[in-house]
Recover the amino acids of this structure.
């Protein structure tokens, strides 16, 4: 099978929102008047972002999910994406499963494949995603990292740390019972981008980012862009790890031989969570709760923005904890 | 140097056309009313699209050039691009040179870097480029592959085959004198995307594509999309190889020990040319010549579109030649 047959068989589909899709030198889109286009690119590399032998269906899902998560963090509605794919070989069952996982998530979000590239080389997946953000009275409704204000509440959606727990288990560093591993592994391999929540937070949240490198590291980007500091309740965050015994989400009680310190590290710096971390004025608490309900997404208040620079971590008694949680860095 | 310092140092620049550039979850663009956005992605892999030890400055140039060439083939005006980069290591001199080559070409075309991704991994460069296409009276002015009509002339811009000649020389398959290698190598490493010509051809050309996989292979896409056939004058195409002794472009006369058959193969199936291949009605010959002049780009008529399917090659005496020229295919 050659390059063009491969594209035609697995990746060429009719477009509805775009003017022109796969099959010419460029795709064509005509954004609706009164909207902006939100654009984000993510590159996933074999052996770094995923195991080389990962299930190709979940890999297809995750490759698009991490991009949709960026649109979610801007409050954008997904429209379309391009896919550039470097493959070591043409493995048809692998490609069919990859395309199935990818396009199922794309269809679920009305996000259509409009173009891209395929080449031979080490396995590498680069997706660029396009979303729509409304402009109201000349003001973009996009959620940015730079809008956090002193006194704002800090929230995170869903659960934290389980993706990292699964990774550590698969790497043989932790021994997790199969029931818990299944849940954690789903968070690692098939994260659900918080697209509906992001859109519901437009006009409510003051700043947002998606948690990819770890909660505190990504919070650091909001603080830097907003010129603010923050206080985070570490033990509230711990309870957002679905596998944590006191989280009420855990499927059973196990002695996992994981210290409180390790739970904190999973929650605060685990990474690969693809949850939304966002800020909103305390006057908006009801609106935040409503946005969570409307999007069927749990949201938890975990701290507060402060005018003083720096990040303070406190435990459940309000005692300051040392902050030595490093965010993920590809070159650190 | 960490991932975020790397981005800040080499790739974060103020934006003029985009609403928001590098540094948030998404970039934001607001296309002008009455325009469409043309979008294309290309992925370049070390050892396949370029030698691992290639000059990083020319690699930066070429990575964007091949994308701008896709915009040119649609007649789009370049606006912006995203860059996803997988790097085996942080090599600052390499990165500085890569960024310099990339951004010099970007600046020359008013095409700004608005976002992307960096990760560790085998060297891989994925660029997605955005351009603007006017819509006039509700009709997109984009040049597509599908508009060729029976009787249309077939044209190609610039020169053909020299990039492949340089590649073959660097691979030790041909012995080219240094003067000719310098010219040919510039065509391989720093192709000039035909952006101005593409825009000048809007409303003149009926179909267009950029020559990346080889003239005949890329012509095949136009024929397939347009449901047409063609006749190509092989010996007119040969003279478009700048290194061909009779091309009048050659810097000197050398006995290169290259057969006529090899010259034909270079011109018709060399690949990596990044010239525009396009069709236009014979009534538009003056307009095509004018578009070439206005964009300072040579254009040469090399054949004609026919209603009958199939591709006929003829020599300078009009005799049919066998067509055994394979287009480049990453998986063939």
């Amino acid at each position: 099978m050659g390059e063009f047959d491969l594209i035609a068989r697995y990746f060429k589909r009719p477009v509805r929102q775009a003017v022109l899709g796969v099959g010419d030198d460029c795709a064509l889109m005509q954004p609706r008047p009164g909207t902006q286009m939100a654009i984000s690119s993510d590159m996933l590399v074999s052996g770094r972002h995923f195991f080389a032998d990962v299930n190709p269906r979940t890999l297809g899902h995750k490759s698009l999910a991490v991009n949709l998560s960026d649109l979610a963090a801007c409050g954008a509605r997904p429209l379309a994406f391009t896919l550039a794919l470097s493959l070591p070989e043409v493995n048809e069952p692998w490609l069919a499963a990859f395309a199935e996982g990818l396009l199922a998530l794309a269809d679920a979000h009305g996000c259509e494949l409009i173009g891209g590239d395929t080449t031979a080389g080490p396995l590498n997946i680069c997706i660029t995603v396009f979303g729509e953000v409304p402009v109201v009275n000349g003001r973009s409704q996009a959620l940015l990292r730079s809008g956090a204000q002193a006194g704002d509440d800090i929230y995170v959606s869903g659960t934290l740390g389980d993706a990292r727990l699964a990774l550590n288990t698969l790497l043989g560093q932790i021994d997790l019972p199969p029931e818990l591993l299944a849940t954690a592994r789903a968070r690692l391999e098939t994260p659900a981008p918080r697209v509906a929540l992001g859109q519901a937070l437009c006009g409510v949240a003051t700043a947002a980012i998606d948690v990819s490198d770890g909660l505190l590291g990504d919070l650091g980007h909001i603080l830097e862009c907003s010129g603010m500091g923050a206080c985070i309740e570490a033990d509230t965050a711990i309870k957002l790890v679905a596998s944590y015994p006191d989280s009420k989400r855990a499927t059973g009680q196990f002695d996992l031989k994981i210290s409180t310190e390790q739970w904190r590290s999973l929650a605060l710096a685990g990474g690969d969570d693809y949850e939304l971390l966002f800020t909103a004025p305390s006057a908006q608490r009801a609106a935040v709760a409503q946005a969570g309900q409307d999007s069927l997404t749990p949201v938890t208040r975990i701290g507060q923005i402060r005018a003083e620079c720096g990040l303070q971590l406190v435990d459940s008694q309000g005692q300051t904890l040392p902050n030595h949680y490093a965010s993920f860095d590809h070159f650190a």
In short: Chain A touches chain B through 73 residues (CB under 8 Å). Residues 7 and 114 of chain A are 12 Å apart (CA to CA).
